[in-house]
Specification:
The protein is α+β, with helices and mostly antiparallel strands and about 775 residues long. The protein contains 13 helices and 29 strands. Helix 1 packs across helix 3 and helix 3 runs antiparallel to helix 4. The protein is globular, with a radius of gyration of 34 Å. Its main location: membrane.
Length: about 775
């Protein structure tokens, strides 16, 4: 929560005045004869091009022009103004230097524009796109000491491909090219495009690399264009090898020996010709692998599982890259280097060398942090983490951690008490699938078998204590860089309460002994301190292409969690009929839960983007359970959810937590979750980014809960959607992103129906509204 004492109107007026001044006064700093360059415009004169084609060509040409004008904001140039009003610093440091040359921006003048060079760029780019007769002219438009350049482009007719030829000869390499010519990117009827020609050369190169032609290069291919064979604007293409292609590039190579230096250190091992070590003592032979590992740091079989090449195999670029990627994904090597050295030039054989530099196997890391959140908690946390990356000499990773944390309530209207947490966990990760069946993966990522065990002690002082035990066993594997699977064959959670205080019990059963302080009963709080036993499988699938340099990217994660199904069926459990079954004296949970998280990112330009997210989740208790376990329910609100509301304070549905829980802490959850978020992000200066966002959503219950009226999902769910919006500031320091989001609620679902939109009934300028409704979220990283 934040209190704003300065008038909004004064801030807005001052900001507007600053922008107006910066707009009007930049030209007064120019010297005699100078003109401020405000950018370039391109006009395309061509009657045969479609509107979309014109727009695409114009946008591409615009990007080629240099220099770029001074950056602007709403048509104004505040960075240029800062440069102009800051006097020249005496030293290359200090506040003046920082303001003038880091925040400020040097003026771009008309004299900096080389119009003849830009015209050549325009013509050259146009020709590369098939406009062989392109012409360009330029004109300057000036007013009030500002100038822009207008480029007029007459591209002429665009040449189309009339025929694609792959001349034949008797060589082996030509035979391979002939085998894939039907998959060419060069299609008859398509426009001539240099980028497509480059892609075609890469396609041929990739195929030949996978057929043993290790020394081949895309530069060995030439695509000749003949535009004289027809009167129409068409071009005939000839795809062939250059005459000066080296003979070695035309030869297929096979693998002779595979030699692994498992403990390679450039500082300790002398290098021979081609960078291969002279020292080959202590050679072990394992399944035709030659392994040099004098200190026996690794079991030889991990290389047999990881490396794809075998003696006599034709060289294959795909297997080459797979082997390198799998070695890296083992997580035990700091550097991975690969060399191929000709061992028999007559029979076209070479040896494959793998030079591997291990990382330090063990590491110990201590982390401390301070934190605050929107629920008025401030606290700290300490973590001690130990990792061994090669525990059994087979790249098995074992991780152990102990941690402690505390959260102290420093304000707010609710008595939530303080929170103390501490615990420990351990994980063993084996770089293969440990199972009674064979699992073959041709992925570049090594599949892993994971074992986890952990314990956490949580105490809400003066309320209750919970002991949380968790263990799981499962598999993690990636098909490729975009697709990941995580299957927990068994995931077990045991929650045991202790020291439940009279204060908390009073909140559950209610207390009307004091007419001035009546506490209504709230039986739903009982589920927080019930013993819980949850066991069953869980699976999640993740797809993302956000790492690709594309304009539109996606992220999707879907998960399924099923608990107690077999045990419930075998025992005939039916909690609604009074037939709840127990295991080890504890009623086990039976439910099915599913969640989908979909995100879409669109780059508007190089400095701005739009990010959106939609989450849909449902948990359905059945058989041995009437309600979902509290720890498995959904919640909304907080710095990574609906930011205009504090964490876990929304829902379910239209239920008003202020009524039933007026003297207690907010902690609401539900069985169904709907949430959508949208955020516009823009970079305004290096590490400084701004955002504008809107969030909406809520949670609901599957079954009616008398203690939380209005919480059940119904056909009127749309009327119970909470809405919030705000602005944010993000400081991107590369190693971390510090995020500050200021949000306000626009629609509050627990208000009376018809009065839920806040701007219909609240005075936004009042201090009371600012105090109760402006929420400041401080967090690390982006919310999604």
């Amino acid at each position: 929560m934040i209190k704003l004492k300065t008038s909004y109107y004064k801030i807005f007026a001052a900001f507007t005045l600053m922008l107006i001044i910066s707009s009007c006064s930049n030209t007064k700093f120019l010297q005699e004869g100078q003109m401020l360059y405000t950018g370039a415009k391109i006009t395309i004169k061509n009657d045969t091009l479609k509107k979309k084609e014109k727009s695409s060509l114009k946008e591409a040409l615009q990007e080629q022009l240099r220099p770029k004008p001074n950056s602007s904001f709403l048509g104004l140039r505040p960075r240029l103004y800062i440069y102009n009003i800051t006097s020249e610093p005496k030293k290359q440091k200090g506040i003046k230097y920082w303001l003038k040359y880091k925040i400020g921006e040097k003026p771009v003048l008309l004299g900096d524009v080389d119009r003849e060079f830009n015209k050549k760029i325009i013509v050259n780019y146009s020709e590369n796109k098939g406009f062989f007769n392109a012409k360009a002219s330029s004109d300057t438009i000036s007013k009030n000491r500002k100038a822009s350049v207008l480029y007029t482009v007459k591209p002429g007719a665009r040449y189309l491909i009339s025929k694609v030829n792959f001349p034949e000869d008797s060589t082996m390499i030509n035979s391979e090219i002939q085998n894939i010519k039907d998959k060419t990117f060069l299609k008859v009827g398509n426009p001539f495009d240099l980028d497509v020609i480059k892609a075609e050369r890469e396609r041929i190169n990739e195929h030949l690399k996978n057929r043993g032609f290790y020394y081949f290069s895309p530069d060995n291919i030439i695509v000749q264009a003949d535009s004289t064979v027809q009167k129409e604007p068409k071009v005939e293409l000839f795809v062939k090898l250059k005459k000066n292609t080296p003979q070695i590039s035309k030869e297929q190579f096979t693998i002779d020996k595979t030699i692994v230096f498992a403990d390679y250190n450039i500082a300790d091992i002398k290098l021979g010709k081609y960078g291969i070590p002279y020292n080959t003592d202590s050679v072990k032979v394992y399944n035709n692998l030659y392994i040099i590992d004098p200190q026996n740091k690794f079991k030889p079989k991990i290389f047999d599982r990881t490396l794809y090449f075998e003696k006599g195999d034709l060289y294959n670029r795909t297997d080459h890259n797979l082997s390198l990627n799998r070695l890296i994904s083992l997580g035990v090597f700091k550097f991975v280097k690969n060399e191929f050295i000709v061992s028999d030039s007559l029979n076209h054989k070479f040896d494959a060398y793998y030079l591997l530099t291990p990382r330090p196997f063990q590491s110990l890391r201590l982390e401390t942090l301070g934190k605050t959140n929107s629920a008025n908690y401030t606290g700290g946390e300490i973590n001690l983490n130990w990792t061994n990356r090669n525990f059994f000499r087979g790249a098995e990773q074992i991780k152990g951690a102990i941690y402690g944390a505390f959260d102290v309530q420093v304000g707010g209207p609710k008595d939530a008490n303080n929170i103390i947490r501490f615990g420990a966990n351990a994980q063993l990760s084996i770089p293969r699938i440990v199972a009674p069946f064979k699992f073959h993966s041709s992925s570049a990522y090594v599949p892993r078998t994971n074992f986890n065990i952990g314990y956490e002690f949580l105490s809400r002082t003066a309320l209750y204590t919970l002991h949380n035990f968790n263990t799981s066993f499962g598999y993690l594997w990636k098909e490729n860089e975009r697709k990941e699977h995580d299957l927990k064959v068994l995931d077990v959670t045991l929650v045991a309460p202790q020291n439940v205080t009279e204060k908390y019990l009073t909140q559950i059963r209610g207390d009307d002994s004091d007419p001035n302080n009546i506490i209504p009963p709230n039986p739903s709080l009982q589920r927080v301190v019930d013993k819980q036993l949850i066991f069953g499988p869980a699976y999640s699938y993740t797809y993302t292409n956000t790492m690709l340099p594309k304009k539109n990217t996606f992220y999707y994660k879907g998960s399924v969690d099923i608990a107690g199904t077999i045990a419930g069926l075998v025992s005939g459990a039916d909690a609604k009929a009074g037939k709840q079954k127990e295991l080890f004296g504890i009623p086990f949970s039976q439910y099915a839960k599913m969640e989908h998280d979909f995100r879409y990112y669109r780059k508007v330009n190089t400095k701005s983007s739009i990010a959106t997210r939609a989450i849909v989740g449902i948990g359905f208790p059945y058989g041995n359970s009437v309600y979902m376990p509290y720890v498995k329910q959904f919640y909304v609100g907080g710095s990574n959810s609906i930011r205009a509301f504090r964490a876990r304070t929304l829902g379910p549905g239209s239920y008003d937590p202020r009524v039933q829980n007026a003297t207690f802490f907010f902690d609401q959850s539900g069985d169904i979750k709907l949430e959508v978020n949208a955020e516009y992000r823009a970079n305004i200066y290096k590490f400084l980014n701004v955002a504008a966002f809107a969030d909406a959503g809520n949670v609901w219950l599957v079954n009616e809960d008398p203690t939380r009226p209005g919480g059940k999902f119904s056909k009127d769910f749309a009327k119970e959607i909470a809405v919030g919006a705000g602005v944010g500031l993000r400081l991107d320091f590369s190693i971390l992103i510090l995020r500050l989001d200021l949000a306000m609620p626009l629609r509050i679902p627990y208000y009376e129906e018809g009065k839920r939109w806040t701007f219909d009934q609240i005075n936004f300028g009042s201090g009371a509204w600012r105090k109760d409704n402006l929420i400041l979220n401080i967090a690390i990283g982006y919310p999604f």
